Amino acid sequence: MSTYAKKQGFGATLWDYLTTVDHKKIAILYLIAGGVFFVLGGLEAMFIRIQLAIPNNDFVSAGFYNEILTMHGTTMIFLAAMPLVFAMMNAVVPLQIGARDVAFPFLNSLGFWLFFFGGLFLNLSWFMGGAPDAGWTSYASLSLHSPGHGVDFYILGLQISGLGTLIAGINFLATIINMRTPGMTYMRMPLFTWSTFVVSALILFAFPPLTVGLVLLMFDRMFGSNFFDVAAGGNTIIWEHLFWIFGHPEVYILILPAFGIFSEILATFSRKRLFGYSSMVFATVLIGFLGFMVWAHHMFTVGLGPIANAIFAVATMAIAVPTGIKIFNWLLTMWGGSVKFTVPMLYAVAFIPSFTMGGVTGIMNAVAPADYIFHDTYFVVAHFHYVIVGGVVFGLLAGVTFYWPKMFGTMLNETLGKISFWTFLIGFHLTFFIQHFLGLMGMPRRIFTFLDNQGLNTGNMISTVGAFFMAFAVIVLVINIIITSVKNVKVGNDPWGDGRTLEWAISSPPPYYNFKQLPLVRGLDAYWVEKMDGKTEMTPAEPLGDIHMPNSSILPLTTSLGLFVAAFGALYNMDDDKTWTVPVIIIGLLITLGSMLIRSIKDDHGYHIHKEELTDDHDKGVKA
Amino acid sequence: MKRKLHKWRLLPLLGILTFVLSGCGMASLSALRPAGEVAQTQYNLMMLSTIIMVLVVIVVTILFLIVIFRFRRKKGDDTIPKQVEGSHKLEVIWTVIPIVLLIILTIPTVKVTFDLADTKAMDQKDKEGKTKDALVVNVRANLYWWEFEYPDLGVITSQDLVVPTNEKVYFNLVASDVKHSFWVPAAGGKMDTNTDNPNQFYLEFDSQKANEAEDLFYGKCAELCGPSHALMDFKVVAKSKDEFNTWAKEMKAASEPVVEGSLAKQGEEIFNQSCIGCHAVTPNDSRPETARQAPNLATFGERERIAGVLDHTEENLKKWLEDPEVYKPGNTMTGTYGELSDGQINALTAYLMQLKVEEK
């Protein structure tokens, strides 16, 4: 898919991608890996819906069903949504702020490979004695009780990929603080960059509690400690707190970038600047901040007492205010605009009412005494799918379509895109709307079957039919991607014609060094400002000079691979009959520490692209 | 008071919604057909929040429809719309109105949260250590079965919870292995049974509503607890106060069951060899909690379901005894009593089906 692919041959291209530290290629790696996991998670969802299509079904067994539901949730959140969000961030943010790359290109690659090996490890559980079966929340009493190694795969896999996420978050914080081009003040940053900034801060604070929780659980399961063992004085509620202190901000980590993407798309295809830009920024920051104050609303039925429940109920409701501000600002962005319904715009427009429905059921869930009814039923399943599919997945589908030309230099087919969109939209509402009522009619979540004659048959059947629509939409999307890649019709800088921000001022895909000369930003929607002044290019902020570039490196891959190897040793170490585990742990850690050592002692100053080469390079990059 | 005020104002809407929703689900299972004071309170709160939220959705939808139809770009239209920065007036409006709506919702939410957590009556004990005026049930959740102990009455049942109507029934909730969650959808929200320490709450069953549900409600486990999580059902039998007292007296007085017929007698012998270590057959089991490793079978013959999910027939009981793993994977009974011959299963079935306390 790379422009260089044809010239290089397969082996060289592969090596290029394995060692790359270029944010644009890492974005493609995230997109491919996240896309594959998304399809896998979707397949698991189809198993769930087929099993629940009719009462007393035996399509899958009870134990296997729990593995599927656990892996569906874990895969979709950690291995599909997160990396796809990172794909968008990597592809767009450095371009949007006019940077040459992220602040730490090496770490960027390390973050990807840690995520990749973590995800691979987790999914290998299917072939190595069974997947985790304690739910994506893995509540301590059940996860300690769960036999086999499934939960161990969950612990180690998430630990490794979580490290990757944390590294990526820190990287984007540093990038956005330090790498903005001259004139790109904070209050001129596009909303997607703003949401990336806030989300990176959330990652920085939210992932450590998960890491701590996983470490404690790992010690309990693998080394015989008793943090969560009640009989030995442990406490299982601590896990729930740690998990949700991570878990609730995680939801915002996913949705805020989607908000950012929609803000870009709605402004672009309305040919209008974002309505209430400063209040949008403020709302984003506020949502991020409040996101840390509300975790216990996942625990209203745990028995924390009326004081805690009341406080967390009120705090949760407060989030509705900044979210409402956003919804109305989006509507007013379109108001008075010149709205063009391209595929990304269709997703963005459909997102508004869909997400609003997920938002209002969120408020209903915040009403603690009413949540005693909703909690752990299909009402909650419906709610969070409305938020995550109607928000995050719509956002990612919109973002992938919108930025596809920037990432690959080609345009996805609009007709196939519209077929995908309509089937996905219809399927989505068909699947999840009815689930609100199933929950209220007494259907708990995470059940592998339900009895006949309990009034639940019709609703479940409708839901399953909807799921098939969604599966069809994804298949059409995949076909669309294949056709587009095969045809390979290249497009120019601003293929949508209405681009407003810096990334549309550069060729599609951009040259590996991004901007030849850093562009000067003269206002919000930097490229639009120039366009309105009758120019077609950005004004350069610096004279043409040598560009300092980082060298490619295989070390991020080997560092991550070492942890992947060591994890197998750690996992099987508790089995008495396996003697090879300790050597495997040692070998794995040696690979990791050795890679880190090489990285530390080997001087790697990168290289320079000389001015002369840049002036020859007429067809690539902006002529600034 | 506040709640009633809202109810009065929103009566027409509430009426319509109630009418629409009353068709939803069965009286014995659905939270949309509240069967007591607790469920009704929660239902009202849910309705209040639903109405507010439906209003919000309607406003957004109207704006949305106007926007997508009125501001469509015509083909070849190259005009640049006015670049509007924002509007303070509008932004204040859509900040303040949601805040007002939320305050309307917050007040009853906080009040009801505290009301429903009021279990003071459980702490008022008389000289003998019995609860003074309230009926207390200790619920113990186990891997795929429920135990209900009436500490003040000295009675234990399993799988079938018996409650008097028209009074608050207080619960101590705890789990003995992994976390479960105790939920009777029609009677009110759920509360988790933690492994750490007991939770307390109360429910109420309205006699009229109980009649509509034929005095029988479905209970569920709401927290993922393993392979048979979906099969961890129980039943709630609602009785009038008098009937309940009679039932409690009979249960308290029940002695070792006496069965009739040689087959059942034979079954009793097998039971006493293989099963009695875990299963008790009298409702006044005085052994400590840890010794009560399996459901109390004193009223087995009167139950609605076998193992919580199978229809109560001899045939199903035989299948269950032959291989419980098929019907409840991951249960703790599988593999504890070896292979049973068909004869032994028939004998056990005959015995178990005669285990009754109430005269029927």
Automatic annotation (TrEMBL), chain A:
Mark the transmembrane ranges: 27-48, 68-93, 105-128, 153-179, 191-219, 242-262, 274-295, 307-332, 344-364, 384-404, 416-441, 461-483, 554-574, 580-598
Q: Which UniProt keywords apply?
A: Cell membrane, Copper, Electron transport, Heme, Iron, Membrane, Metal-binding, Oxidoreductase, Respiratory chain, Translocase, Transmembrane, Transmembrane helix, Transport
Per its UniProt entry, what is the enzyme's top EC class, as one word?
Answer: translocase
List the GO cellular component terms: plasma membrane
The reaction(s) catalysed by this protein are: 4 Fe(II)-[cytochrome c] + O2 + 8 H(+)(in) = 4 Fe(III)-[cytochrome c] + 2 H2O + 4 H(+)(out)
What Gene3D superfamilies does UniProt report for this protein, alphabetically?
A: 1.10.287.70, Cytochrome c oxidase-like, subunit I domain
Give, as in the UniProt entry, the pathway in which the protein acts. Answer: Energy metabolism; oxidative phosphorylation
**Record localization:** Cell membrane
Does the record's keyword annotation contain Oxidoreductase?
Answer: yes
Which Pfam family is an annotated match for this chain, by its short name? Answer: COX1
**Major site of localization recorded for this protein:** membrane
Please name the CDD domains in this protein's record: Ubiquinol_Oxidase_I (cd01662)
> What Enzyme Commission number(s) does the record list for this chain?
7.1.1.9
User: Which processes are annotated in GO (biological process)?
Assistant: electron transport coupled proton transport; oxidative phosphorylation; respiratory electron transport chain
Magnesium found in the keyword field: no
Q: How does it sit in the membrane?
A: Multi-pass membrane protein
Annotated signal sequence is none
Q: What biological function has been recorded for the protein in this entry?
A: Cytochrome c oxidase is the component of the respiratory chain that catalyzes the reduction of oxygen to water. Subunits 1-3 form the functional core of the enzyme complex. CO I is the catalytic subunit of the enzyme. Electrons originating in cytochrome c are transferred via the copper A center of subunit 2 and heme A of subunit 1 to the bimetallic center formed by heme A3 and copper B.
Fetch the PANTHER family from UniProt: CYTOCHROME C OXIDASE SUBUNIT 1
User: Know the name of this protein?
Assistant: Cytochrome c oxidase subunit 1
Q: Which organism is it from?
A: Peribacillus asahii
Taxonomic lineage is: Bacteria, Bacillati, Bacillota, Bacilli, Bacillales
Q: Which gene encodes it?
A: ctaD
From TrEMBL, chain B:
Q: What class of enzyme is it?
A: translocase
Q: What is its main location?
A: membrane
Provide one Gene Ontology biological process annotation. ATP synthesis coupled electron transport
Compartments where found:
Cell membrane
Cofactor mode of binding and number, as noted: Binds a copper A center.
TM stretches of this protein:
49-71, 92-110
Q: What is its EC number?
A: 7.1.1.9
Give the protein's cofactors. Answer: heme c; Cu cation
Write the record's keywords in alphabetical order, separated by commas: Cell membrane, Copper, Electron transport, Heme, Iron, Membrane, Metal-binding, Oxidoreductase, Respiratory chain, Signal, Translocase, Transmembrane, Transmembrane helix, Transport
Q: Quote the cellular component terms of the Gene Ontology held in the record.
A: plasma membrane
* A GO MF term: cytochrome-c oxidase activity
Topology relative to the lipid bilayer, per the entry, is: Multi-pass membrane protein
| InterPro entries assigned to the protein according to its UniProt record, in alphabetical order | CcO_II, CcO_II-like_C, Copper_CuA, Cupredoxin, Cyt_c-like_dom, Cyt_c-like_dom_sf, Cyt_c_oxidase_su2, Cyt_c_oxidase_su2_TM_dom
A matching Pfam family: COX2_TM
Q: Which PANTHER family match?
A: CYTOCHROME C OXIDASE SUBUNIT 2, CYTOCHROME C OXIDASE, SUBUNIT II
Please state which protein family the record places this protein in.
Belongs to the cytochrome c oxidase subunit 2 family.
Q: What is this protein called?
A: Cytochrome c oxidase subunit 2
